[in-house]
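Help! Submission page says 'invalid entity' but I think these are all valid:
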Amino acid sequence: MTNCIEIEGLNFSYNGDTVLEDITFSVKSGEYLGIIGPNGSGKTTLIKIILRILRADSGKIRLFGEDINDFSDLYRIGYVPQKVSQSEFYFPATVYEVIKSGLCAKKGLFKRLVEKDRLSMEKAMEIAEVTEFRNTLISRLSGGQRQRVFIARALAVEPGILMLDEPATGIDIASQDKFYSFLNELNTRLGITIVFVTHDLGVIADEANSILCINKKVCCYGPPDQYIKEEFLEEVYGRKLSIHKHKIRHEH
Amino acid sequence: MFEIFEFGFMKRAFAAGIIIALTAPMIGIFLVVRRYSLMADTLAHVSLVGVALGLLTKTSPIVNATIVAVLTGVGIEKLRKSKKIFGESAVALFLWAGLAVAIVMLSIAKGFNVDLFSFLFGSIATVSVTDIYFISVLAVFVFSLIIMLYKELFAVSFDEELAKASGLDTDRYNLVIVVLAALTISLSMRIVGILLIGALMIIPVLTSMQLNRSFKQTLVFSILFSLFSVISGLFLSYYFDLASGGTIVLVAILLFVAVFFIKSNNNS
C-alpha cells in the first residue's frame, strides 16, 4: 500500500511557543488513523498544516507522493472541520448549495458544473443520507445532519482522504454511534482513507486501525490496542482516564 | 404620472438608479453573510476623502472617490489578514481615519457647500450624462465579475477555512469582494449619497433573508426589493420634493419592516 501522507521532522511554533516538534509519521492509502492528545497538544494545528491552512516552520510533507508546496489538488483531501464557522446559523444556503461549493476548487475558475459533477453530488448525498434535505436551509438542520452535509460536501469531490477534526462535537450520543458506523463504512466499503481527530478514546479503540498520539511531540504511533491502555494514557494526559466503549457493531 | 420622464435629469436619475439597484445587492449579499455590513458604510465615508480631493483640486470627485475607496478596501483587507486586530476594528479604524482626513481637507478647500451636500445626501438633479457612462461601465464590470466568480465568492463567504482547505486562494477572493464593494459605492454615490449608500447595499439583502430562501433566490429577491426601493423612492422624492437618498432608503426600510412582520405572523 502506498503512503498518501508522509510527514518528516515537522516543526511549528506560534508567537515563539513551540506547538509541534519533530513530528514524523505516515498514513497509508485505505488506513483509518485516529489522532488523539490532550487539549492544546497540536492536533488541530497538525491537520491545518496538512491542509495548507497553516504553514510549517520546517520539515517535509508529501501528499500523494508530491511535496506539499507543489501539490495543487488539495481538493483530493476532503475536510470536515471541528465546527464550521458560525455563519451557517444564518447563512441563506440550501444543503445542495453547500455541497456544490465543495466542487469549486476542483472545477477551477470560470467552469460550470457538468453532468458528471451533478452525479458525484447525488452519489455523495446518497452515501451521507442527506438527499431528502437537498432543498432545506443548512440552518434548519440538527448538528448531526449538518455534519453529514459537510461529509457529503467533502465526498462530492471523490477525495482520497477524508480528514475530520472532532466531527462528533455537538452530536447526541445516539447519533454519534450511527455517525461512527457511517465513517467505518466509508473506510471499509469505499476504501477512503480516514484521518480522524478525537478526544473519544473508546471510538479510536473500536474504529481506527492505527493511532497517533501527540502532545507537541509524537507520543506513540501504531495499532490502537497497543497504546489505548490506562497506564500509557495517564502518562500522556497527566491524569487517570477511563475508556468508554461505544455500542457500535459493524456488519461487513 | 409619467410627466416625470419629460425631464432629462429625471431620465438620467432613473437610469443611474436602476443600474445601482441591480448592482448594490449583488455585492451587498456577500458583505452581509460575512458579517461585514459596516464595511459598505466605512468605504462610503472614506470615499468622502476622494470627494474632498476633487473639490480641492477641481478634479472629478467620483473618480477620486473610486480610487480612495478601492485603496481603503485593500488596506482593510490587509489589516484584517494580518490578524493583529479584529476585522471589525480594522473597519472602524479606517472609518474614523477617513472621515477625519475628509473633514480637514474640506475645511482647507472651504468645501462645505451645496456640492458637498449633494454627495453626502444624494442629488438626482446633478446626475450628468458622463456620470451615467461612468456608472454603466463600473456596473457592467462589477455585475459580470460577480457572475463569473459566483461559485468562488459563495464558497469563500460560506466558510473561509473550508474554502482554503479545498485549495481556493481565499485572500484573492476576499480582496475581490472589498474592491467590488468599493466600486459599487462609488457608482451609487450620486443617487443615494455617501451617508446612505451602505443602506442600499445591505437593507434589501436583510429583507430578502427574511424569506428563508436559497442563496441564489435570496440574491434575486434582494435585487427585486432594491429595484422597488429605488424606483418608488425616486418617484416619491420627485413628487413630494424630498431628498432622493433618504426617500429610497426609507422605502427599503419600510419593505424590511413589512416583510419582517408578515413572516413573523406567518411563523407564529
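Support: the input was valid. A stray whitespace character was the problem, and the output above is from the cleaned input. Residues 3-237 of chain A form a domain with the Rossmann fold fold (CATH 3.40.50.300).
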